[in-house]
Structure to design on (185 residues):
């Protein structure tokens, strides 16, 4: 599945993950991007082979 | 073909507020793996409950900030590809692909959450219309 990314991001957030096994704390700055439903590329190329036969 | 569309501040706010209102009371932020759709977002890797009111009112920029989000202290685990805002009845209102915004984080293989990890989220913002 191909992501269809728009700019700028419409969702931003900070995730913190505390690992159960090690107790390590990891911080992640993340962004979310809107997706077409279904992706536009998949609709446009429906029925067409991705790699044309020689 | 693309065209430029500009919205007033009131329109930006209204669009965001309309969407966040759909989350309703006691919604949740859910992280999902690759695949799925907004109607069927897939399994939950981690589920973080929103406050009773998920978001505050949008600013004039159209950006709304989430109220406090409860951590998932025992995540199911998996590789995060999407985030969804869901109602208390697990109906997805917003679904987006997620990626790192900081260059020092390699997200090419997704964010891996291990079962039992604690996942916390802060500073969550949402904007329905970008301009």
């Amino acid at each position: 599945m191909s992501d269809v990314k728009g700019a700028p991001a419409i969702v931003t957030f900070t995730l913190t993950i505390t690992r159960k096994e090690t107790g390590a704390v990891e911080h992640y700055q993340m962004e979310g991007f809107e997706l077409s439903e279904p992706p536009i590329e998949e609709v446009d190329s429906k029925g067409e082979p991705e790699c044309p036969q020689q | 073909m693309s065209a430029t569309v500009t919205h007033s501040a009131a329109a930006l706010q209204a669009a965001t507020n309309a969407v966040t209102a759909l989350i309703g009371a006691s919604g949740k932020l859910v992280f999902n793996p690759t695949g799925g759709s907004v109607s069927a977002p897939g399994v939950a890797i981690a589920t973080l409950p929103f406050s009773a009111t998920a978001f505050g009112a949008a600013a004039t920029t159209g950006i709304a900030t989430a109220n406090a989000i409860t951590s998932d202290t025992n995540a199911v685990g998996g590789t995060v590809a999407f985030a969804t805002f869901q109602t208390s009845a697990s109906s997805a209102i917003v679904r987006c692909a997620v990626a790192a915004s900081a260059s020092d984080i390699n997200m090419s293989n997704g964010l891996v959450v291990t079962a039992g990890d604690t996942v916390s989220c802060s500073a969550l913002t949402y904007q329905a219309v970008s301009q």
